[in-house]
TrEMBL record:
Sorted UniProt keywords: Kinase, Transferase
Superkingdom of this protein's organism: Bacteria
Cross-referenced InterPro entries: P-loop_NTPase
UniProt protein name: Uridine kinase
GO molecular function: kinase activity
Length: 211
């Protein structure tokens, strides 16, 4: 694999340019990566201002706002890696409240978060209108391979050693979930843009080589 070194600032600028060049309609962009080990939120946040400067209004929607209630997430225990991989994120709610409204027949209004995991109750937030040409930036983990209708996906990839090193000690139990994701989905190849972030200060963009 060939990776092109890039600064975080130039990475955000290049990604914003790529998104701005997409068709002028409502778009859903995903920033995918292991929670706690990659800064998906930081990259999504860094895209907001460049997109607005290019004429694309941007709305942030963390996938963590669409986790299932604790009674469902922890049905098999709080440290079950298979449950974290398949059961924590409410895919149906994310489609219904965020992705479907962006479609041609959608309302154009998205819900920025559905569930407050700290209080374990509904957020009751108001819907946010997304203008024509606007962009919804969704960040989180395990966003690929589930049939979510994103227009572009950026995957933040870590080598296995870097993942073990950077994952918080309290989340080490989740390593089998990330290994399963790599094995079953291969997000580095499925994503539109893959960025190696073993050292977050010095990311590198994967550049496929011609056959």
């Amino acid at each position: 694999m060939r990776y092109r070194p890039i600064s975080p600032e130039v990475l955000a600028a290049e990604l914003a340019e790529r998104v701005a060049a997409l068709p002028h309609r409502r778009l859903a962009i995903a920033v995918d990566g292991a929670d706690g080990a990659t800064d998906t939120a930081g990259l999504a946040d860094a895209l907001v201002d460049p997109l607005r400067l290019s004429g694309r209004a941007a709305v942030r929607v963390p996938a963590s706002g669409f986790l299932r209630p604790a009674s469902l997430r922890f049905e098999h225990g709080k440290r079950n890696p298979d449950a974290r991989y398949t059961d924590w994120l409410d895919l149906g709610a994310l489609r219904r409240e965020v992705l479907d409204p962006l479609g041609a027949d959608g309302s154009g209004e998205v819900l920025p978060a559905l569930w407050d995991t700290e209080r374990d109750r509904a957020t009751r937030l108001a819907r946010v209108p997304v203008p024509e040409g606007g962009v919804v930036l969704v960040d989180g983990e395990f966003l690929l391979g589930a049939g979510l209708a994103f227009d572009l996906v950026v995957h933040l990839w870590l080598s296995p050693a870097a993942l073990r090193r950077r994952l918080p000690a309290d989340d080490a139990w989740a390593l089998p979930a990330y290994e399963r994701y790599e094995s079953e989905v291969d997000p580095s190849l499925l994503a539109d843009v893959t960025v190696r972030v073993d050292d977050p200060r010095h990311p590198a963009v994967y550049e496929p080589q011609p056959d």
